[in-house]
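Sample A.
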Amino acid sequence: MESPTGTATDQAPADPAAADDRPATQPIGYWSGLAHTAVTRHLRDSMATIDATQPQYWVLNNVGYAPAAPSRAEVADQLAPLADGPYEIPRVVDQLLHRGWLRTDAEQRLYLPDAGEAARVRLRELVTELRAVVHDGVSDEEYVAALTVLRRMISNVEAVRKP
């Protein structure tokens, strides 16, 4: 692989103690995975303190921001890429219905009652607080650059992926 300067960059083994003078040699899969694990754990641990889960937040947002009341299947289909398997989101919908954070109408479309909207707003406040912790010392420009690079890498891999 060549760097933008045209010189080859060797791939070093993943090393949490690697010196900052050679970060381009570190494997992106290791570091992006470590970041995902750390951020997700922090988010889920924090949500647990208010007896909520990340998938519950996804569902509440999906229903709350939908232009029209969605069906269970529409919510499950839209959130499937985020879920841990095909049954997670339907189970979460059941949990939220039981808790009174969702309700259905005669056509089985999903709505947020006042309790569900209050929970969604509280979770949004918590996520905003957690984002500030995660982004501490990271400028918006650095964040955008990191996302741009990750998206490019994903695109590169998907372009050569075999069906």
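Sample B.
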Amino acid sequence: MQVIFTKGDGRYGRLTCIRQDASRTETQMPEQGIAPHDMIHYVVEKTLAIPGAFYGQLKAGANISFTLEHNQLSRQVADKTQVWQTESMVESLQSLYWSQELNFEAFSYLLAQSCEQRELAIPQVSEHEFEQMLASITQLSTQWQSLAAGQSITLVF
């Protein structure tokens, strides 16, 4: 699936996903000073090969809306635990970027706190995987910040 992040006016950009069968789903996406939330989701899910969270469900046919609009296949791949563990990882990474505390110990602490609040098992993320995610987010954030309105980054999930 192609995942296209299009720069907007500084307040909102656009997220478009085009599946293998050429069907598509898209939404307005809030922009922020760092890589957008949905871009960090992409990095986490791609790096850790998480099949049942946001992009896995979109790839299987769900449509983006406030709550995902599912089809039969996307319901089959959806995994509520993976969804919320992924959200916890994304929120933890965003916090690190905002605070500039880009270290594994801080990530592990924030992830544990977030998962405990949601009453979830804490996903196992190695320091190597953490470093891979940081490198990808940093690269994408740099690319994103250099785009002009209307330009985009296309990735594959």
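B remarks: The chain has a mean pLDDT of 94. The first strand starts at residue 2 and ends at 6.
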